[in-house]
Amino acid sequence: GMANSATQHLLPDDIKQSVLTHTAQLRAMGPELRTQLNKLTAEDVEYSIGWLLLILSSASALWRKRNPSGQGTSVKPKETNQAKKTAAEGEVESIEKQAVAEGTPNCKKNVVCPITGNSISFAVGSETFSHTDFSLPGPFPINWTRTYYSRLASYDHGSLGARWINEFTTRFDLHDKGLVFHDADGRDHKYTLKPVGEAHYDAIENLTLVRVTDNSLLLCRGFERRETYVRHG
Known about the structure:
Elements: H1 2-10, H2 13-39, H3 49-66, E1 128-136, E2 142-149, E3 164-165, E4 171-175, E5 178-182, E6 188-192, E7 199-202, E8 207-213, E9 216-221, E10 225-230
Antiparallel strand pairs: 1-2, 2-3, 4-5, 5-6, 7-8, 8-9, 9-10
């Protein structure tokens, strides 16, 4: 029509070529987009919509199995209705044993501070404290802060001293078929070693771990920072 004729004769050749190039790229992406959208319905793909719906369905079925009688009520028109269920009264007793803590909580994630005023962890009894050696101002400021963590046995021969770590000396260790990430606060995080091209999201720590190649990993801290780790040895 008129619009196509005007476009053909009035637009400069370089702009038309740019539009055609981008159009071809979008068309080439079509099959891949279709494949990725179809994966969202797959129940065997972790964190897909189908996977989440399967978990929700399983949880609903389990709840119904535990509560077979349901909850009956009558609805009266033009009135506020409530359905109430009174649980059987049970005895209150003290608990003498609790599950052993596997790690130190994240101080930034907990409302209640998980350590004493002297930096001793309530969960595992470890000691941790930080020391800033120097700060360099500028467009990309550097705060050289070291953290000591008494349970950090993997850093007994660390470059900053025994069991000292900072954001420039974090690393991944390969244990069995999994990974152990030593973060800058001294805490360890265990992850499975995914195949190349796959990722794992740690919702608690807000970390995304991507296995880029056989010997390299990409760690994303939210949307603020990306770190690349390359295997040595």
